[in-house]
Structures are given as structure tokens and as C-alpha cells.
Design goal:
heterodimer, A: about 425 residues, Rossmann fold, Neuraminidase, 5-stranded antiparallel β-sheet, 5-stranded mixed β-sheet, 4 helices, B: two-stranded antiparallel sheet, 5 helices, 6 strands, globular, disordered N terminus
Chain lengths: ~425, ~170
Amino acid sequence: MTRILTAFRLLLVLALAGFALGARAQLSIEITGAGASRFPVIIPIFQNEGQLPNSVTDVVRADLDRSGLFSLVDLGPLALPESVVPDLPALRGRGADAVLTGSVIAQGGGRYEVRFRLFDTQTQMELGAMALPMMASQNRLVGHRIADFVYEKLTGQPGYFSTRIAYVIKSGTNFELQVADADGMNAATALRSREPIISPSWSPDGQRLAYVSFEQKKPIIYVHTLATGQRRVVANFKGSNSAPTWAPDGNQLAVVLTKDGQSQLYVLNADGSGVRRLASSSGIDTEPFWGNDSNIYFTSDRGGSPQIYRISAGGGSAQRVTFDGSYNVSPRLSADGTLLAFITRNAGRFQVAVQDLATRQTTILTDSARDESPSFAPNGRMILYATESGGRGVLAAVSSDGRIKQRLTVQAADVREPAWGPQPR
Amino acid sequence: MKKLVIPALLSLILAACSSTGTDNAATKVEDRSGAGVATVTAGSASGSGIAALTDPNNILSKRSVFFDFDSYVIKSEAKPLVEAHARFLVQNPQMKMLIQGNTDERGSREYNLALGQKRADVVKQALMLLGAKEAQIESVSLGEEKPRCDDASEACYAENRRGDMLYSGEF
């Protein structure tokens, strides 16, 4: 028995080694368009930051720069300690509208405290101050928190630098469901499979992903707890099971099942129990998205072509939401319920569009041809989506006003099916 | 690394031993490099069928029904194939079939999954009209996820618009 186990173990080691993607795939982000007017800020090195093995302010600067909303005014190697009010008129003379001062204080045992203050150089007012405890290894985490603080103080909206994204990488015949920080760093694989994985959806608490895996030769919905790797089949009915979306309370999912005929919408509890039909139509109903407005937005061809509809999460009759064009799919509602992002076919090209639900005004945000799977940042400012570049699947992000554009690529692999995670709690 | 891998593999073996067959052999492999994310490797089952089903001279070895663009109608040239498989199912009531519907790659993945389901359902309905029992057949969709052909050409798209018939042991 021992010998059999040893041989089996060896086989498994070989299988797993061959199964892993060749390199630790890292997303790299390239900015392809920026806001018309960027807000000039100075983020100097923090006092005593050199005690840390890795920089915090480098992370803050990279986050703010990548957002497309800020330009960084360089102050050289000069630190501005948090304990002293800097010469704000002089900093204004350097072209900065805001300045962040900060200090790193060692507290022994590898612990540190980072204290920082943000000033408006025009009004000469302090905009806010904060102190964060950290371990030396947490420079990225703390940098993202500080960038969120600066972003929120200067734009009035919460930042998204501390959020995570999920996406699927296809490399040859291997599929990996990965989770990374919003800047593409710290990528980690949640699931490896020889069969496709699609439609990841974050639970509102950011701890779990629901997704569709084809590992049993048919689409089955799983809920996967990221920290432990524990997974549970929540829908494996006869036929296809797909398109999970979480209810805002995290207790239920809307899904698409074919157990009673064509693809139709159902709601079930997060443990897979209590399945009930949400709507009945004569055509295809799919791609539900459960909005914070208690409506479920979905794609249906009930009117002859695929269009976006909405229905109350409690049921009732569906209302049509999109009217322009003959192919509008993949709806996603912003957290504040004002904007609907979706994919529209425009002269044969699939592009990201947003509709302002109050005015019904629709704007096409991209000029690419193979866009898929839009997903809002928690603050509604950016939309992450999948597209194609140079024959490869890449991720891209566009601001909801269409001005700021970024591209996220992984060397030698196809990236698809992005989902922007919630604000960490 | 070794320390982490061996217990993880042991639990994988134990999971495999206690597997019921429908359960996949997924378990967690510790991966400390990521921020609190454990890596799981998905298992998959595959087997082989009966000799007649794989004999290239037997029509039963052919498994694909092709569809026109935006169409969910079985073409006349596919009828002998569907009839042969319906006869096989009637004569072998213990055999089960999984029909996988497929689409080309254009458009939304989830919407394509729904379109692939329509193709699989059409094949299932044809087999049932010819005497196969509903309990023998499951129709599912792979959407655009498992293309037989990878180029962005019309010939390739046509190859990918199809329903595939798989028998017990093949899925």
C-alpha cells in the first residue's frame, strides 16, 4: 500500500508540475489614454521610508498615475515629514494643487506606523490625516490604502486601489482562474483546470467567487472560498448551469438553468438550496446581473434580437432597457445604480457602451472590435473588460466617461472573463 | 516547498479515494505566494465507449451535427446520422448520451452558451422523435468555449457551429 501510495504521489507531482502554467503570469498595465486635465499632486518620499525594505510611496504614485486623473509633480529625494506643515505657497509654485506629507515610524519587532497628511496648496487647508500600522511586507497594501485616501479626498469618490480583480487565463489547453490586486500584482491562482472556466462573480464580501466550470464536460456552477480553496457545487441540474450573479446581501444567487427547457433565470440560496424560477419567457433569458437597485438586469432574445431587460428581484414583469441596435448583451449596473454598462454590436464590432439610466443616453466607450464581459470598479469610475489585441485576449479598462484607457496584458497567454471585486471591508 | 506539497498531495489522494465518482478530485494546494488565495486543481473524467461507436466504418463513429449561421435546424444531410444514433439508443436502452451544443466565437460567452443549448436541444428532440427516451439523453452547451477550430475564418466558424453526441463513458 505504501509503495502504491508513493508511486501515486510521484505521478501526481509530475502531473501537477506539467499542469502549472510555465511562468508566474503577471499582469502588466499600460495607460493608453488619460483624462483631459490631470490634477497635479506631489507625493514625496516619506520621512524614514528608507527603513522599509520596499517603498510605500512608489505604490501610491503608481496607483494615482495609472488612474489617469492625477499628474505627479516630482520633488526629488526631499521628504516632507508629516509632523510639519510644509511651505504650501512654495509647493504651489512648483505646480502642485495638493501635497501629501508622511513619516514612517519604526515600532520594533518589524512593526511600523505610517502617518500622513494631505494639503490643498490653493486653499492652504489640510484635507485629512491618517495613521496606518504595517509590517514591512505590507508596503503594497498600505500604499493602496494611502492612494485610496488621496483619491477620495481629491475626487470625492472612494478609490479602488485596494480592490482585487478575478480573471481567467488560457495557456494552451490549460485554464487558470486567477485573482490579483487591481494593479495586476500579487496574482494568485484559485483554480486550475484542463477545461474552460467562465463567468466569475465576486460575493459582496470579497471572500468567494461563483463561476462556471466545464470540468465535468458540461457547465456547472461552483462557489469557491478563496482563502481555503473550499468549493461547493451550487447548481448541477440536467442541462446547462451558468451565469451566476450574487445578490447584494450575499445570501442568494441568480443563475441560468436549462432544466425546464431553454435558458431561463432562477434564484437559489448561496448553498445551492431553495431553487425557484424568477421569470418565464418564450426565448433565451441569460446573463443576469443583480443590481443594488433590487432589479436583475439580463439579456433576452424574447423580442427577436438579444436586448437588455430588467425585472424586480422579487419577480413580476420584465421591462426592456436597450432599444438601439440589434445586439445588446452582458449588462452590469454601477454600484450607485445610475449607469448600465453592456456590450453592443456596432457595425459588426462588439464594443463597451454605457447607458445613463436617468436620461437613457447611450455612449459607446471603446473603438475596439471584440469587447466582452464589462465589469465596474466599485466606485463606478472605471469599467474593466476583455478584448483582443494582436490576436490575443487581453484585459482593458476604460473610464465611464470614455476618456481614460488602460490595457492589462499577460505575456504569452490569453486573458479573459474579468470581474472587478468589491471594496474590501 | 516540499513540506507544503506532500501533505497537500496526501489530502488529494485521500479525496480521490473517498470520491463518489460524481465528485471531482479537487482539493487545495497551498500557495503562499498569493494574498490569501489557495490553489485548487480541477479533476476531469474521461473514458472509452463500445467498439461499434469508434469503428470508423460505422456511421455511429460520426458524432457531429453541423448548423448554419444563426440556425437551429438540423440540415437534411445530417438526418441519416441522427437516425442511426436514435436506432442505437432504442436498441441499447441502458446507454446514455450527452449532447454538447457549440457556437462560433462571435459575441457574448454566456449568450453563446444559451445559443449552443438551443442546438443541443434540437438534436435531443430529433432523437426523441425517433424513439430515444428522454431519460437517456442530456443536452448541454459548451457555447464558444471548446472550438474545434481556432481561426477567425468563416470555414472555422462553420466547423464550430455543431452539436456533438457523446455516450456513457465518453464524458
